[in-house]
């Protein structure tokens, strides 16, 4: 039975498509500025089963752009905050919460379960990001990936494309290079921005660990990336 809270989605998509979403399982790895809003949009679309992965805690510097980041949640695990939020959106959601850093062992263990209809990569460190994408490709798990939203201001420059078609994005360039080493060149849908980044807005600091640098961000750009990622997932699950 389709719950009342999904009545507007039901009106748009029809019963069959909504029921299809209710029977899907989506994995979202990374719950920061992009991943948090992406996970929320997937839940609000009616996907019935989700697994969310993130070991980070809320820092007040996240408040400008991250769904789980509030003054009241500072210091709490992002995965726990998002879990409460997603269950408040859909109390019937079958939700698995993994407050862990995604590493090769966890990636393999997760993806070997064979449970996922779609995977979403919102990982912001290079090596685990590439490992995750490669392992999804090996198993023919559909995957959508976020490239860099930092340092960008113009939403009109955001695009959905194959990873091979990305440009003017440093993260995408590094990801492409690492993927090429694994003989992966195409077949991964990504959200990226073709806007040039002002390198004066990037600083190298130990505070960025495990990354090497911090980059300036504005509230709406990661959210738009997350919404566009969720649109890839939902439209692909519905074969649209």
Automatic annotation (TrEMBL):
Cross-referenced SUPFAM superfamilies:
Activating enzymes of the ubiquitin-like proteins
Q: Which CDD domains match?
A: YgdL_like
Q: Which domain of life is it from?
A: Bacteria
Q: One Pfam match, by short name?
A: ThiF
Q: Where is the THIF-type NAD/FAD binding fold domain?
A: 12-237
Q: Which GO terms describe its molecular function?
A: tRNA threonylcarbamoyladenosine dehydratase; ubiquitin-like modifier activating enzyme activity
UniProt-listed Gene3D superfamilies: NAD(P)-binding Rossmann-like Domain
**Residue ranges the record marks as coiled coil:** none
Q: List this protein's GO terms for biological process.
A: cyclic threonylcarbamoyladenosine biosynthetic process
Protein's UniProt name:
tRNA A37 threonylcarbamoyladenosine dehydratase
Which species does the entry assign this protein to? Answer: Sediminibacterium ginsengisoli
Q: What is the lineage of its organism?
A: Bacteria, Pseudomonadati, Bacteroidota, Chitinophagia, Chitinophagales
